[in-house]
Amino acid sequence: MWLRVWLACGLAMPLPLSAVTSQSFQVSATITPGCLIVGGGSNYGALAYGSYSALATSTVTAALTGGVTLQCTPGVALSMSVDGGLHSSAGRNLQLNSGSARVAYQLFRDAAFSQSLGISQSVSVTYSDANNISLPIYGRVVLPGNQPGGTYSDTLQVQLSW
């Protein structure tokens, strides 16, 4: 009996099955708009006013140089704010590195020095090239002519948001 079952199963022909030859599936990706800080590491640049006589009373200006550039997804609304610095009291101040003498300075967001950049004021950063965005920070100081000689400096914190 066992032999018959085996023979009966062994001689059975498979039934043809219909085959599915094509099928579809979904493919998707989400691209999140944003910005990338390129170069500079934690140093966003420098405002270097230069060297002047301790008796100078001129107004000197500087633009942020040597820092980072940004790349943003086109159309991203980028904004920045700058704090008051390490020596902020009634405004931003440069302080003598080896003393307590101070010289006041102001920041602006345009090269014409017509748009003030207030302490922690959030301002829009406009750009025409989304792959090469520089921070628009300009500084102006009126030399008082009566300060001790030496190097005056300050450190500012920049916050970027998008």
TrEMBL record:
<keyword id="KW-0167">Capsid protein</keyword>
<feature type="domain" description="Spore coat protein U/FanG">
    <location>
        <begin position="23"/>
        <end position="158"/>
    </location>
</feature>
<dbReference type="Pfam" id="PF05229">
    <property type="entry name" value="SCPU"/>
</dbReference>
<protein>
    <submittedName>
        <fullName>Spore coat protein U domain-containing protein</fullName>
    </submittedName>
</protein>
<dbReference type="InterPro" id="IPR053167">
    <property type="entry name" value="Spore_coat_component"/>
</dbReference>
<keyword id="KW-0946">Virion</keyword>
<dbReference type="InterPro" id="IPR007893">
    <property type="entry name" value="Spore_coat_U/FanG"/>
</dbReference>
<feature type="signal peptide">
    <location>
        <begin position="1"/>
        <end position="19"/>
    </location>
</feature>
<keyword id="KW-0732">Signal</keyword>
